[in-house]
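Table 4 source record.
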Amino acid sequence: MGSVGVGPDGPDRTSDGGALHVPVLRDEVVELLTGDRGGDRVVIDATLGAGGHAEAILEAGARRVIGIDRDPLARESATERLSRFGERISVRGGLYSEVLAEMAETRAPVGGILLDLGVSSMQLDRSERGFSYRQDGPLDMRMSSEGPTAASIVNEASEEELADIIYELGEERRSRRVAAAIVRARSRHPIETTDELSRIVSGALGSRRGGAHPARRTFQALRLAVNEELEELQRALPIAVQALAPGGRLVVIAYHSLEDRIVKRFFVETPELQVITRKPIRPTTGEVEENPRARSARLRAAERRGDVAA
């Protein structure tokens, strides 16, 4: 995952064109995590991606950044990009919930944690990763090389299971129509590529001139299911709070309503947190024009209270 958040299709995270590896809401993230904090803090970029946010945070004076990403290619790219910072940057592999749990146990003081959710540009723009409905590639969608692929779900799940996944995770109202079309198609031969699936969904739903791609929601649903992204977010949020020192801040950038709803509810219902952003911060018109993939981003931030026992 990454440094340039984007949504269902995914800079360094989401959908349709835009500059590669451009950190979404970079200035806002830097201000929240280092601006009035004295800069000299340890920050965890829990979704490192290509390292764009981590680079900006280090340039702003953070003492150290610990980057986490489950994608080995992302870690390799970020390590190269950030090598000039020497020992001020360290990169960890694995699920961010697990690495944050390790850090919470050490009780090391952490001044800020960033979660830039979604899929990275590096993942989206490489057809062999199988994330994009606009490029043909194997129907994979895994952020790491582990676990079942999207093809496994598409070809093995029942029609009812497919409809539920596409409705619940893709918020696709016509999910049953999509699921039925997938099951008809796979009865002839397995669905193995993103182009095949995109054409099947488009055929089932049709398309509107100027509207979103008809397969967008289905691809989002499958990606979330393959990588268990919402489950990982729900596991990580309470752990992140425990990892933060009093006065430390948690900043989350979400790209669709499912993620944002989880974050909003957690912030409001967690007594250890003081919400900083009453409403989510959105990209400016200028940022969206420069980087269209930022258009769906919503940033929320909260601070760990100093009057609540750890």
